[in-house]
Amino acid sequence: xxxxxxxxxxxxxxxxxxxxxxxxxxxxxxxxxxxxxxxxxxxxxxxxxxxxxxxxxxxxxxxxxxxxxxxxxxxxxxxxxxxxxxxxxxxxxxxxxxxxxxxxxxxxxxxxxxxxxxxxxxxxxxxxxxxxxxxxxxxxxxxxxxxxxxxxxxxxxxxxxxxxxxxxxxxxxxxxxxxxxxxxxxxxxxxxxxxxxxxxxxxxxxxxxxxxxxxxxxxxxxxxxxxxxxxxxxxxxxxxxxxxxxxxxxxxxxxxxxxxxxxxxxxxxxxxxxxxxxxxxxxxxxxxxxxxxxx
Length: 295
Known about the structure:
α3 packs antiparallel against α4. This protein has helices spanning 2-14, 20-41, 51-62, 67-86, 113-123, 128-143, 147-151, 181-198, 217-231, 238-251, 256-263, 268-271, 273-289, and strands spanning 158-159, 164-168, 174-178. The N and C termini lie far apart (67 Å). The protein is mainly alpha-helical.
């Protein structure tokens, strides 16, 4: 089955044109499925796969992971099975009638405006890395980029004269995202005064680490955790800064459809989770302000 998984990887990259991060997730899920059926059911060839083998694996992973992770693993396997059908390596879609577990809707953590300001005050400074850090925070909070979109920006994607950045989102979908005045200033300072000192290897990536190499997701995540501990905000990540962008815009009257376009969501149902946050905030304001909200 390792050969078929390798062919599946090529298909995802070359024909489906999925991002490296997405392809890695699909292949990791399929590899673990193969390891399970090989170890516990002695299955090594795709022709021997049956619906019961997938169900057995899903039963196993459902005991270890949340429903969202289980749903993703099943989605990967279903995609793999469809690929095998397409290539005529198997005859039947054995995964077709396996139901995807319902994902529990978790409301994202809320970062207040004052928390974001505290974070920016903490990272500010005259050093090269401080200027980079301010640009990172201003851009991810000011434009609501995914961390993958933020860290994959190259210099050609930055259009300061027209106040926008060109990003490649999920499924390699491209969009132009406006930047705030503060992000514009931070980016201008970083690109002019700091990045040239970091760029030892003539790299085209915008955000570089102290060694002059592209800043990684893990590197940025660790920085945020360190800063969060210092300013007393435990729950902070690139994803939560993106949530803050969306929530604060909605609280100030942003149209849901416009927010969907800014965030790069394919379906508006994904964006609607932020309306729950907004309603929660409104209820809290109502309880505090309205004279008849309390006895």
